[in-house]
Specification:
homodimer, 413 residues, alpha/beta, Aldehyde Dehydrogenase, Chain A, domain 2, seven-stranded parallel sheet, four-stranded parallel sheet, 21% strand, globular, NADP binding (chains A, B), EC 1.2.1.41 (chains A, B), glutamate-5-semialdehyde dehydrogenase activity (chains A, B), GPR_dom (chains A, B)
């Protein structure tokens, strides 16, 4: 039996035990995990150094090496994350709905763990612990499939987590790392419906598409964000400019950053908006009118409207009204986060109704699409699909339901 | 452009209009559909006769021909189904949760349509109208892909539905039949992520597996039910026997029928249970002990424990306690509907906690796993998967959410 199948079987078994634990038992185990990660800091850093060494030899870029890097401080952040999970409300066991049928049947839907979660992710080794511990808190066993470039770090982190679980109520087999990072084994993992209840890919568009295209296990798609800020005719000057700058520049490399600003052609402050963005170092790519009016605006290509730049580059377009803005977003958006800035309530209503996206904003930055910012305390990813969970996914997104029906001998007639 | 892509584009466009309609507008259109189906009864029956003729020529079995058959009465039932939808609460627009963040952001999650639903189903032409109208009520456009054996009936039904929608608020393009029933086009449909938001297969295990194995569009898996009734030591005699008979025989061909009865070895009435089942015409397949004690019980094979017989055949096994029953269900069950009959509250609690299935029953028949019986009014299928919806799926399962965030200029710091 290969590594994948062997671990999958252990996970399924462990998930049954884990699903029956109390909140206290899970929290105690998570605190042990946090403590042990701190204790084993040196070992983890030592193993992480091997990945960095190998990465340098393979000529990885500085930014990729930075994603791979663990430091004392980063380990402490990871540990803080695990400790914070202890304070989050346990979703398991919650009664969602309860009702009685005319024949006397008492129906109750309750929240239960999904079972076994398959995490598929790229270089950042912190995902190993962040996602792993989040799965445990929601009562799920987790199969972690990271990238080969982080294999020493991931092995070390999982080893430390498993050591910490010994002697706790959570079976150590509830956390497994798939050490075989070959494509063939990944493909097998994506089709392991008998053992995996869900796959959650986290990473770039390429990784996510690989999982979606090849999986038969249901996928919680987290994804690409080509987010827009639409500045309506009535937008307050400072608010609009501040939000556009924040949405673009606060952290350009993430999915909830804005990639295009749409400006109502009658909004009087477009010149100041563009100048301020330019001063902040943003490369501007605009429509014909803007290009002819502002020498520092480069012409936007068709591709630019569809791009998630993940960089300080912004596409800018003037539109004649909210409907043109909605149509543009409909054509190029990725159903992630879309904002309207303005004081015309009817336009806001129309924008909220017509734009199909996970999160819609009025007079706020798209950067708030985030589990922490939504108050979920932690996040396993941001769903850009429509089934199961949409937008930031916290602990609840890692659960399913069970219907419990209590009768007194009812039969169907 | 092929038929599939052309219709998919029209559906996507229509879904946007449909998603913005009021409940009254949708209900008025549904009533028109109901009326017109009655008016065009003769035409529908005439077209249905062509399918039956072709089916006889191809040597279809009597039961398959019966599934294909429409009669005046069956059309009236279909029409009643559409009319009943009008009385169901419209899930669209419902506020699910609303909260405020410390920074003043007002977050609200609301229920919105999925968009475009792809229904993939087998012979029964009633699904064309049942599923089609249910999708419309939830604000979704629907692509119907039935089987070639029902093509004339399906064409007629969709033609009549579309005619009825003319002049209503629902665009007629919101309902489309994929007339090309080739496998190649089906495979293309299953991977049409740009236009389809979800696939719902309804039919036998083969059809469902074909969709799951080939789809990249998210699938709401409806499925096979290998359901169990566990009769605990403390079960009341008449209640247990009545429920076992009902679960097996009320309608043996459906997924919520019981396929195996597990009996606690100390329950004193096994002889009467088996005799009564036999008298009702049930073929019994049992474990060694039962076979050696009762001449009319045939030996059950390993395959029998895993079978969804869909026929008056029942596997019967004696178990030593509730844990053995749970383990048996864990090994052979399909996570659909599982029942425990008995008066030991601790065993019921354990059964409810440990058995992983969509619906669990205490002292009631598994036959209640059904949208109508749950009080959902209508049902698009019974989900046996864990994401999005589990168990009977009513209108809510055909919706997703949108988060609406209202700010006063908040940016992320």
């Amino acid at each position: 039996m290969g590594e994948l199948l062997e671990k999958a079987k252990k996970l399924k078994k462990a998930s049954k035990q884990l699903g029956m634990l109390s909140t206290i038992e899970k929290n105690e185990a998570l605190l042990k995990v946090a403590d042990h990660l701190l204790t084993e800091k040196e070992f983890i850093l030592h193993e992480n150094a091997k990945d960095l060494e190998a990465g340098k030899d393979r000529g990885l870029s500085t930014s990729l090496l930075d994603r791979l890097l663990l430091t004392e401080e980063r380990i402490e952040q990871i540990v803080d994350g695990v400790r914070q999970l202890v304070h989050l409300e346990d979703p398991i066991g919650e009664t969602i709905e309860a009702w009685e049928r005319p024949n006397g049947l008492q129906i109750q839907t309750i929240r239960v763990p999904l079972g076994v979660v398959g995490m598929v992710y790229e270089a950042r080794p912190n995902v190993t612990v962040d996602a792993g511990s989040l799965c445990l808190k929601a009562g799920n066993a987790v199969l972690l499939r990271g990238s080969s470039s982080a294999i020493h770090s991931n092995k070390a982190l999982v080893q430390v987590m498993r050591e910490a679980l010994k002697g706790t109520a959570i079976p150590e087999d509830a956390v497994q790392l798939l050490e075989d990072t070959s494509r063939e084994t990944a493909s097998e993992m994506f089709r392991l419906n008998e053992y995996l209840d869900v796959l959650i890919p986290r990473g770039g568009a390429g990784l996510i598409q690989t999982v979606v295209q090849n999986a038969t296990v249901p996928v919680l798609e987290t994804g690409v964000g080509n987010c827009h800020v639409f500045i309506d005719e009535t937008a307050e000057k400072e608010m609009a400019i501040t939000i556009a700058i924040n949405a673009k520049l606060h952290r350009p490399s993430v999915c909830n950053a804005a990639e295009t600003v749409l400006v109502h052609e009658k909004w009087p402050y477009v010149s100041e908006l563009l100048t301020r963005l330019l001063e902040k170092g943003v490369e501007l790519r605009g429509d014909e009118t803007l290009v002819s009016s502002y020498s520092f605006v480069k012409p936007a290509t068709e591709e630019d409207w569809a791009s998630e730049f993940l960089a300080p580059i912004l596409a800018v377009k003037q539109v004649s009204d909210v409907k043109e803005a909605i149509n543009h977003i409909d054509q190029y958006g990725t159903k992630h986060s879309e904002a309207i800035i303005g004081e015309n309530a009817e336009n806001v209503r129309l924008f909220f109704q017509a734009v199909d996206a996970a999160v819609l904003y009025h007079n706020a930055s798209t950067r708030f699409t985030d589990g922490e910012q939504f108050g979920y305390g932690a996040e396993i990813g941001i769903s850009t699909q429509k089934l199961h969970a949409r937008g930031p996914m916290g602990l609840k997104a890692l659960t399913t339901t069970k219907a419990i029906v209590r009768g007194t001998g009812q039969i169907r007639s």
